[in-house]
Design brief:
mainly alpha; about 300 residues; about 60% helix; elongated; disordered C terminus
């Protein structure tokens, strides 16, 4: 058993090098794949005690059944299976297995939940919770404004640098998933708040350094951004499940409501597949239904008024 465990551990080290250096996956994706690997490894060692190359489809199916019985969400189950497929694709291309044991294992149908969206009034309420006479208040207000007016992911936000800001042209340069760069328009309100924060923050930083800092002068973490937004939502009395991604959802939804097409929204969000962006068309239908109902109500009123006059 000890020899089998060592095989799994050696493979994990090789696999991590591969996804980091050859596939050049982001740190967050690498962390997720390592979590997938560790949970699957512990399951296989505990139940079967076999090496990675000896795993078959029945073992993977039993692992998926175990996830289901543990009441994991369909998204979580699909996430794990994706990680296992990535692992065995690596074993296949390095000729450690002759065929993929994952081919006959189906992923659970993912639940497509509509994301929470904030109204413009709720976003204004968030912004009013910050004391912009202080460096921290300016920073937090700028963070919310940037997330909402650009649709950045939280990782993209905390890695923004001073030399990613092209305020003269009205854009920010964003390094997204897979180190892909895109230029995203930024509102004048967000530009003003960033400039005010940069004037007040201590210590002053060179342009190539990280933009948003904590009170020790170090880059903010993703967790800290979550905390800032959740605290602001509580102070604003917003009774919704809110995260930095909520502002991204709100940005995309409001763009569609304002007349942007789905391809434009896909490009601005940095989605590789348009199917990822299509969830916002479902959110937007609520808005469209309200517009139609209001329009018909207005028509009915006009007909009634015309009838009464005649």
């Amino acid at each position: 058993m000890a020899d089998v465990t060592k095989k799994w551990e050696r493979l994990r080290a090789d696999y991590i090098r591969y996804i980091k250096t050859e596939r050049r996956l982001s740190a967050n994706t690498v962390e997720a794949y390592v979590d997938d690997y560790n949970e699957f490894m512990h399951f296989v060692l505990r139940i079967y005690g076999v090496a990675p190359e000896e795993v078959n489809a029945a073992m993977i199916s039993r692992f998926m059944q175990w996830l289901y019985s543990a009441k994991r969400s369909s998204a979580s189950q699909a996430r794990r299976l994706s990680g296992i497929k990535s692992l065995y694709n690596y074993l296949l291309i390095t000729e450690r297995v002759e065929q993929l044991p994952t081919e006959s294992v189906d992923a659970p149908k993912a639940e497509r939940l509509l994301p929470d969206v904030l109204s413009v009034e709720e976003i204004d309420a968030l912004l009013r919770t910050f004391d912009i006479t202080t460096a921290k208040g300016c920073r937090d207000s700028a963070i919310v404004e940037v997330l909402y007016s650009t649709g950045l992911r939280v990782t993209e936000l905390v890695t923004l640098r001073g030399n990613d800001l092209f305020f003269g042209e009205g854009y920010v340069r964003v390094i997204g998933k897979g180190d892909k760069q895109r230029l995203v328009p930024i509102s004048s309100a967000a530009r003003d708040k960033i400039q005010l924060y940069m004037e007040l923050r201590r210590p002053k930083r060179p342009s190539e350094a990280t933009l948003f800092l904590n009170n020790r002068g170090e880059p903010l973490t993703r967790v800290m951004v979550f905390t800032i937004i959740k605290q602001a939502a509580m102070l604003a009395g917003i009774d919704k499940s809110i995260s930095p991604h909520t502002l991204r959802h709100s940005y995309a939804t409001h763009l569609l409501e304002g007349g942007a097409n789905i391809r434009q929204v896909q490009e601005l969000l940095g989605h590789e597949s348009i199917s990822t962006t299509e969830v916002y068309t479902h959110v937007n239908r609520k808005h469209l239904r309200g517009v139609v109902e209001e329009s018909f109500a207005n028509i009915d009123n006009l007909i009634s008024e015309d009838y009464e006059e005649n």
